[in-house]
Amino acid sequence: MRIDCPHCGPRDRREFSYRGAVLPLPEPGAADEAWFAHVYLRDNPAGPIEEYWQHEGGCRAWLVATRDTISHRIHAVRAAAAR
Amino acid sequence: MSALRGGPHRLAAGGLIERESRISFRFDRGHFAGHPGDTLASALLANGVRLVGRSFKYHRPRGVLSAGAEEPNALVELRAGDRREPNTRATVVEIFEGLEARSQNRFPSLRFDLGAINGLLGPFIPAGFYYKTFMWPAAFWERLYEPLIRRAAGLGRAAPDADPDAYERCFLFCDVLVIGAGPAGLMAALAAGRAGARVVLADEDFRLGGRLLAERAEIGGRSGPAWAEEVAGELASLANVRLLPRTTVFGVYDGGTYAAVERVADHLPVPPPFTPRQRLWRIVAKRTVLAAGAIERGVVFPGNDRPGVMLAGAVRAYLNRFAVAPGARAVVFSANDDAARTAADLAACGVAVAAVVDARPEPPPAVAAAAAAAGAPLLAGAVLTRAHGGARLTGASVRRADGGSDFLGCDLIAVSGGWSPTIHLTSHLGARPHWDEARLAFLAGEPPPGMAVVGAAAGRMETDACLAQGAAAGLAAAAAAGFAGVLPELPDAPHESAGRAPLWRVKAPGKAFVDFQNDVTEKDLALANREGYGAAEHAKRYTTLGMATDQGKTGNLNGRAILAELRGEPLAALAPTTFRPPYTPVSFGALAGRARGPAYRPLRLTPSHAWATEWKAVFVESGPWLRAAYFPEAGEHDWQASVTREVHGVRRAVGLCDVSTLGKIDVQGADAASFLERVCLNRCSRQPLGRVRYLLMLREDGFVLDDGTATRLGPEHFLLTASTAHVAHVVSHLEWCREALWPELDVAITDVTEDWAQFAVAGPRAREVMARAVDPGFDLSNDAFPAQAAAEVRAFGGIPARLFRISFSGELGYEIAVPAGFGDAAVRALMILGAAQGIVPYGLEAMGTMRIEKGFPAGPEINGQTTARDLGFAKMMPKEGAYLGRAMAARPALVDPERPALVGLRPRDRSRRLAAGAHFLVPGAGASLANDLGFVSSATFSPTLGHAIGLGFLQGGLAHVGKTMRAADPLRGSEIEVEICPPCFVDPAGERAHG
Ligand SMILES: [Zn+2]
After folding, report:
1. Could you tell me if B853 and B949 are in contact, meaning their C-beta atoms sit under 8 angstroms apart?
2. How far is the CA of B478 from the centre of ligand 1 (A)?
3. Dihedrals φ, ψ of B466, to 5°?
4. What is the rounded distance in angstroms from the CA atom of residue B851 to the CA atom of residue B811?
5. What is the pLDDT of residue B634?
6. A60 alpha carbon to ligand 1 midpoint, in Å?
């Protein structure tokens, strides 16, 4: 698998580490249920999903990759900081 | 002495072997000779060795079936000693001087094998035997079944010790990857290479040419091998083309990534210096042309596994490529037009053809003509019903079209059930092959992105079509990668007739094998079907069809066709096989590459490593670091003696310890304080300049991520420390928080762990030592530089340094950091400056002992399952603020007063030792999970107190102080009474550190 880092170009997946699905952080003061859902509940979609990957063995940037869980194709990659 | 001339069965002329040089080798006890260009299989056949192994289950005699990587029979142990390699296919092993090979699955000898009695017991070892017999009880597996099966199976033996050779892993990038160097692959590489694309041409063989090497077809007026050599020569001359012979592309992965193993030195007795035995390539290709050819199938008929029954294409390969006659009198048995070539090649090489048996009622005239030219009767509509003989074939029974039978004397049966395109790689990413009724074969489904399938791999068996398809695909692949070219001129080539009819099996009494390597018979499939395991995937698991190391390359389709017939299903309804990497077995050595033993991961050395080595430190691995565990002195015969002396040294005078491995994270920016307040429990915005604070960081789920310190070096500048083991994760986490959660904050995070060497100087006389280390003018008095103070100073004569008054030992303590390059000088200077105070170096063991004496949590306590409350830091948790983990840390179960919390413990009988891992029980309660009240996380002998102490997590925590509990350790069979106490054993008021 290869990930097209916006800073470094397409690189082997061994340079990257995975964190998980991109989820909005609950608002400060949100109910416990919102935090519970945020920490433990995942949609596990069959299809495209936005995920956090860090180019740990490269520029170290955190990236948001849109990956298809069926075909494993990565459709888009952007820096997490560039919203 | 004919054996030493390269074998009595060597043809007088022809072949791609160097007759003028001779290679001697051993097989079992025999000494033989072959020529460069031989495989082990061809050299054995040239020497008349027909019996090369015994089968897995029935120990039946087996010979060479194929001439390639698909070989299920001729598996041998290659080499000796630590280079011994089991299950090596003799058909792909290039012989080299001094080669040693041994047959497998035989005891005591290949000819006389006691295990063959299994063959007589055959009826009692049916398919599903392992399922039924060894299902239960589970404990019997380890002790009884598995050793038994392994000894009986004896699939070769692994080498006794570590492989002495080196392996490499490399990356390779190209525009066009061509897999297979037969006619299609060579043309594809030529078209793409001439267009200027970066081309990689990989082929598993040691000579490029594929099937052209095995046939007599003329290409462009030259012999096939001559044409292939010419094309290979041109490709080798192109700077943009890389040829990888002896290289198997074994896996396809996402993003145009291919895995290949190059057998760099397998054809040599020993790899030359600085040369790996094998190289694992990760090839990243923009486009790929798959020209992997096809694999011939046998026919399932009784005795079809006898040595001397050989695939027809392999017979032609041994005749034409290796100049070996695999027999003296042959029967050709097939239902396709290749029979003509086989008969003609046999006759041309002087092998008598006893008969051409064609199952088709009306074979085409070409087959009849070839049979006639070979002087052999053509038996149309006939089938072989049995191969006779034991270790050597004596003849075959034939059932004629009229139903009558004949006996044909022969020592070779050239059999062909047809060809299966080698489409394994096309389905590695999940595409399902589809059945092509006209070609009687599975063809590739939607291939992986960027891959084109050509030639025999696409079902085209005619040489001219292979050349044309390859050229077109190579050109298209280059164009897609941005290189325009022209179609190479296509040489004249034959258009072989490729007529075929289905021929999977012959119904006749006797043991007929479908899968040779796993000894799966036609009857096993019938049994599986009767017992409800007839679906292809079920039958596979029930009978182990196709599950041996050859993955059923020659047998799978026959098996599936038989099942389809048993179930009354059409062939078109056949579920395709799911192919998974690797295409052929890959050694662990190649996958591991250099990453083994001490090189498994890089070893990190502390700045004081050289100094510590001079001080005869005993080192221990701590994460990726090698750290000094203790510094033994003369007369100290165990580590405890050294550690006790070091602890006393620190507590009574002063000690010195390298703490550089601690993570150091620089956090700067206008929003540094507010950023930190979102990721840790500390109120950083209120933290005074020049002060150090204990730091706790939570995960989103409310558990502790890590602890450390935060030092405020400036209004917008913090320096964090993190534990040695966690620093990489903590840095990643902070970067994620900054970039993903709050990119609007002005803050920069830098891991400066390796930039600073840091030393702890601790003990009642530490101030005296530091006063001499720090440059004059800096006031170290308790008022000017109290506990938890920090400053940027100059030390050792002008070197920029950071000084912290912090203590992990509980003593008056400092940590001084200097740029890493000064670390070695600094530690040596501190030893000299502290000599008058009796400074002692101390290591990780003494440090760990003193932190337990002080009750400071470390790795065993911050284990990912403990909260700040559990650790006794409930008061640190701010009531205000939106820091990560706050909401989840407040979950009822995590704030339950009965939740296990940190306590100290000591044995009632002070002479007893404690062990981490023991569980707390109330006196009288049985040692069961229901009565479990917590566990001992850390334990040590306290030199300061003279007895064992420990830390642990106990339900109810400090409410139990003063009570007696039992610490039960069923694993080590110990159980002792302990007294629960506060977790700090030495100087609980903290007067020493503040003095
Ligand atoms: Zn990058």
Report:
1. yes
2. 28
3. -60, -45
4. 11
5. 94
6. 6
Q: How far is CA A76 from CA A6, A51, A63, A73, B82, in A?
A: 10, 11, 10, 9, 49
CB within 8 Å of B44: residues ≥ 6 apart: B27, B32, B52, B64, B90
Question: What whole-number distance in Å separates Cα of residue A67 and Cα of residue A47?
Answer: 8
Contacts of B604 (CB under 8 A, 6+ apart): B624, B625, B626, B661
Q: Which residue of A has its CA nearest to B253?
A: A1
The ipTM assigned to this model is 0.98
Interface check A24 vs B, CB under 8 A: no
Smallest Cβ–Cβ distance between B887 and the set A12, A35, A80 belongs to A35
**How close is the Cα of B360 to the center of ligand 1, in Å?**
63
Q: Give burial (CB, 10 Å; 0-12/13-18/19+) of B26.
A: middle
**Cα B661 to Cα B759: distance, rounded to the nearest angstrom:** 10
The whole-angstrom distance between B699's CA and the closest CA on chain A is 10
Report whether the peptide linkage leading into residue B147 is cis, meaning its omega lies within 30 degrees of zero: no
Interchain contact, B739 vs A36, CB within 8 Å: no
What's the DSSP call for residue B342? H
- Rounded Cα distance between B29 and B161, Å, is 24
Burial of B864 (C-beta count, 10 Å sphere; 0-12/13-18/19+): exposed
Interface test with B, best of A4, A19, A62 (most B CBs within 10 A): A62
Residue B214 C-alpha to ligand 1 middle, in angstroms? 49
Interhelix angle B338-348/B312-320, nearest 10 degrees: 30
B751: nearest CA in chain A? A60
In Å, how far are A15, A58, B176, B385 from B173, measured between CA atoms? 16, 18, 9, 52
Quote the DSSP letter at residue A34: H
Q: H-helix or E-strand containing B234?
A: helix B224-237
Which domains can be identified in chain A, with CATH numbers?
Answer: 2-22+30-82 (3.30.2270.10)
- The Cα angle at residue B576 between residues B573 and B582, in degrees rounded to 5: 175
Q: What is the pLDDT of residue B125?
A: 56
Q: Which residues of A touch B883 (CB under 8 A)?
A: none
pLDDT value of position B577: 74
Q: Compare CB distances from A32 to B255, B732, B891 and report the shortest one's residue.
A: B891
Q: Mark yes or no for CB contact A61/B739 under 8 Å.
A: yes
Kindly report the nearest CA distance between residue B739 and chain A, in angstroms.
Answer: 4
Q: What is the largest CA-CA distance in chain B?
A: 116
Beta-bridge mates of residue B223? B218
Count other C-beta atoms under 10 Å from residue B838's C-beta: 13
Q: How far is CA B901 from the centre of its chain?
A: 42
**Mean pLDDT in order along chain B per 10 residues (995 residues):** 63 96 95 97 96 86 96 94 92 97 74 57 55 55 59 67 94 98 98 98 98 97 98 98 98 96 96 96 98 98 97 98 97 97 97 98 96 97 96 95 96 97 95 92 94 98 97 98 97 94 95 93 94 89 88 92 92 79 94 91 94 97 93 95 98 98 97 97 95 96 96 98 94 97 97 97 98 96 97 97 97 98 98 98 98 96 96 89 91 94 97 96 91 97 98 97 95 93 96 91
Query: Ligand 1 mean position to B606 CA, how many Å?
Result: 29
3-state SS of B280-324 is EEEEEEEEEEECCCEEEECCECCCCCCCCEEEHHHHHHHHHCCCE
Name the residue among B956, B899, B892, B882 with its Cα closest to residue B698: B882
Tokens describing residue A31? 């109910």
Task: List C-alpha distances in Å: B892 to B830, B868, B887, B888.
Answer: 51, 14, 11, 9
The predicted structure's pLDDT at residue B157: 78
Residue with tokens 């096993």: B524
